[in-house]
Write a structure and sequence with these properties.
23% strand, four-stranded antiparallel beta sheet, binds iron/sulfur cluster, 14 helices, eight-stranded mixed beta sheet, 393 residues, single chain
């Protein structure tokens, strides 16, 4: 793999130009309606220059920074999931023809996308969705096609938010493997520049037309300082030790009842989560009934309907649905796919209207861990000093 090189802001402009000339639709962070969201980028001027963000449980605000950094905010409101696995996908369209019907040929493939500014957490989430949607016996044809043609330019997170905990999950702040190119933005007395590291032959190719210079040791040290500085700014942490067994052992914990009383079952957390992949299929027709469409739409385990089998829903209480979500994310997902279903992006915390924080809920589960209670009881029985329990009273 090629050594790291340095490009400046005009080099970034050339990189975007050359991607567009190669037929990519470049999507990256931009400011819209008071938030940093993913949208089409035509020049570096479209990026959130001098914009930072504040994210806390149930809170999101952008603010001006005192510098011209282009990527000094945390996660965008949506992740790459909204591009590679859109919330509403047309599966097929049919038209009435006489007493039968014909199915329209599929739409032509849209332009391939180049995703600019993908964070480490979101890069890890893409790898998870690759496994779920494109790596098993039955693959999702739409996702697989879109993903195969996508180019990913990751960017090291320099300013994690209060809700971020990628360092706990091992997914950031420096993006791991899987990007075609990884940029680290550096602003110091030596100038505003980007350390570029190539991750694939395609990444090498797109960089070949961009004016760069070899990175010096000072550049590498400055980029490493960005990473170490970001680690110290990480807003939250999640103790991952024993998480799988903790969740399974505490299926009857009172913590679920407590969180169920606060949770609105609004589904926001699953909509913004970059790894959640539950969907439903919806059929719609026009008013005349001549045209029918079948769509795949995002769905959520927080909705009552999602667990409906014949005779009714399996998970009728909000607490049981929250338990299902968190236990799948942090425990059952590992059994299914060998990795955690959470990459530590913090979006479910930021965008929860009830400010529910999964790191706090896990801490509450730990504090009330039924296994510790049982162990204490056994020990006191063994020593002849029995702790009174509720059944004693
Ligand atoms: S945890 Fe928060 S975001 Fe998720 S369903 Fe409940 S209220 Fe909505
Ligand atoms: S569970 Fe929350 S923090 Fe974890 S990946 Fe999903 S949205 Fe991000």
């Amino acid at each position: 793999m090629a050594s790291a090189v340095i490009l400046d802001r005009s080099g970034l402009h050339t990189l975007i130009d050359s991607l567009r000339e190669s037929g990519y639709q470049v999507l990256g962070p931009t400011v819209r309606d008071g938030a940093v969201v993913l949208a089409e980028i035509q020049t570096p001027d479209d990026l959130p220059g001098g914009v930072g963000d504040t994210q806390e449980a149930g809170t999101y605000r952008i603010h001006s920074r005192s510098d011209e950094a282009l990527f000094s905010f945390a996660t965008t409101a949506q992740s790459a999931k909204s591009v590679l696995f859109p919330a509403d996908e047309l599966l097929w369209r049919g038209r009435r023809v006489g007493s039968g019907f014909e199915v329209d040929p599929p739409d032509a493939d849209p332009a391939p996308v180049a995703l600019l500014g993908v964070r480490g957490c979101d890069l890890a989430a893409i790898a998870i969705q690759d496994q779920v949607l494109a790596g098993r016996e039955l693959t999702d044809a739409h996702y697989t096609s879109r993903r195969a043609r996508a180019l990913i330019i990751a960017v090291t997170c320099a300013s994690p938010a209060g809700t971020c905990f990628c360092a706990s999950m091992g997914t950031g702040p420096k993006p791991g493997a899987g990007a075609d190119l990884t940029l680290t933005e550096v602003l110091d007395p030596d100038g505003h520049r980007f350390l570029a590291e190539v991750g694939s032959a395609t990444g090498q190719e797109v960089l070949s037309g961009v004016p760069t210079r070899p990175a010096t040791q000072a550049d590498l040290d400055a980029a490493a300082a960005v990473v170490s500085g970001a680690v110290t700014q990480m807003g939250r942490e999640l103790g991952t030790e024993d998480l799988h067994d903790l969740l399974y052992a505490n299926a009857e914990s009172p913590v679920w009842t407590d969180v169920g009383e606060r949770c609105l079952a609004c589904t926001n957390c699953t909509m913004v989560c970059p790894t959640c992949f539950c969907t439903s299929v919806e059929d719609v027709s026009d008013l005349t009934g001549d045209i029918d469409e079948r769509h795949r739409v995002w769905d959520s385990c927080f909705s009552m309907e999602y667990s409906r089998l014949h005779g009714g829903s399996v998970r009728t209480s909000t607490s049981s649905r929250y338990r299902q979500w968190l236990t799948h994310k942090l425990a059952a997902w590992t059994d299914q796919f060998g990795v955690s279903g959470c990459v530590g992006c913090g979006r479910c915390i930021t965008w929860c209207p009830a400010a529910i924080d999964l790191t706090a809920e896990v801490a509450a589960l730990r504090a009330a861990d039924v296994r510790a209670t049982t162990q204490r009881r056994d020990m006191s029985r063994g020593s002849g000093r029995r702790t009174p329990t509720s059944t004693d009273r």
